Amino acid sequence: MPRWLPRAMVLALALVAAFQLGSWAFHQLTGLLINILIAFFLALAIEPAVSRMAARGMRRGLATFLVFLGLTVFAAGFVTLLGSMLAGQIIKMIEGFPGYLDSLIHWINLTFHTDLRRVDVQEGLLHSDWLRKYVQNSAAGVLDVSAQVLGGLFQLLTVALFSFYFAADGPRLRRALCSVLPPARQAEVLRAWEIAVDKTGGYLYSRGLMALVSGIAHYILLEALGVPYAPVLGVWVGLVSQFIPTIGTYLAGALPMLIAFTVNPWYALWVLIFVVIYQQFENYMLQPKLTAKTVDIHPAVAFGSVVAGTALLGAVGALIAIPAVATLQAFLGAYVKRYAVTDDPRVHGRRGSGAGGPGMLTRARRLWAGRRPDGAQRP
User: Is pLDDT above 90 for 14?
Assistant: First the structure.
């Protein structure tokens, strides 16, 4: 046996064991890494506000705390108002359930010539096996729901803690990162960091402005129709439609339609029509003007990035896909050499007279007039 063979076998086994250990550790820490990624983009989003407050003499830690305090107060107020609205609507539906049930029983008796009574239906529901199994499954799932809620709160606390440190210690983090790189690489890293801050903050602020416009427009409609909780519903539509990509508009419009339906079924139709019309106005007029200087990417690229981000990281990837792609596009744009475009009609989508001979319509006319396709007279 060669002397190097045992050493090579031990080295190969050690490499395989290290790879397996690294793979196991990566899978175990995937949740933490995703939370750190979310925290990093959140810190980039609030970096302009924190830096502006720090430039006026305020400490970065205090500035970051004030920004987080404002976000927390807004989120808590919104969740409280939304919860009270949903609770009120649920109570209203429960109180009106006997009337709905009487109307349904009356329609069934008239249509099918039956003799149903509400008491019989209620007793049948209370003593049914379906209701008993549903209650048992719900009681068994309380612990699972509680565990999921606690896990969600822990993840939220983790994201908030990391994003606070990233924003408050941003200069120190950049210095620590640049200290292990040569000067040429340091300039590139700092430039990429600045682009990421600009694009992420611009994306957040442009989305916030569009959410404000959308919320005000839907609030005016709901208030004119007399739909209850119009301010909360307006805020709901603005936030959900802007910060949940692709399907946010439909999720945002579903709740106002449901509340409007309890007032008048025709109001739900008016809300649907307004949502569709406003979405077209936002896509073709409002959004291009607001995002032209912040997140200037093609709509097809934005849609593809959202799909790719969803496939890779789920809802988290969908949220951070657009600012990430905008940052990458802006950073790579400085290294792509561009040339002057030739003045050719084909560049503008028009075919020139010398680009492949006469067109199909010209050839058809010449054939109809008795000429050959090349323009010569037929013999």
Answer: yes
**Mean pLDDT over residues 16-44, rounded?**
87
Alpha-carbon span 283 to 195, nearest angstrom = 25
- Residue-wise pLDDT tens digits, 163-220: 888 888 888 888 888 888 888 788 887 887 787 777 777 777 777 888 888 888 888 9
Which two structure tokens, joined as six digits, stand for 68? 């987080």
Overall average pLDDT of the 68-84 stretch? 81
Distance CA 297, CA 325 (A): 8
**Residue type at 194?**
E
Which residue intervals of 287-358 are DSSP H helices? 287-291, 299-313, 315-333
Phi, psi of 371 (to 5 degrees): -105, 160
**Which residue in 192, 180, 183, 239 sits closest to 214, CA to CA?**
239
Burial class of 221 by CB neighbour count within 10 A (0 to 12, 13 to 18, 19+) = buried
Q: Is 344 helix (H, G, I), strand (E, B) or coil?
A: coil
Please check whether residue 239 is in contact with residue 74, taking contact to mean a CB–CB distance below 8 angstroms.
no
Q: What is the pLDDT of residues 321-354, one digit of tens each?
A: 777 777 777 667 666 666 777 776 776 666 655 4
> Rounded to whole angstroms, what are the CA distances from 346 to 112, 114, 161?
69, 74, 55
Q: How many residues does the chain have?
A: 379
Q: Cα dist. 83→75, 79, 86, 89, 165 in Å?
A: 12, 6, 5, 10, 31
The reported pTM is: 0.64
Residues 250, 271: Cα–Cα separation, whole Å: 12
Strand pairing partners for 377? 371
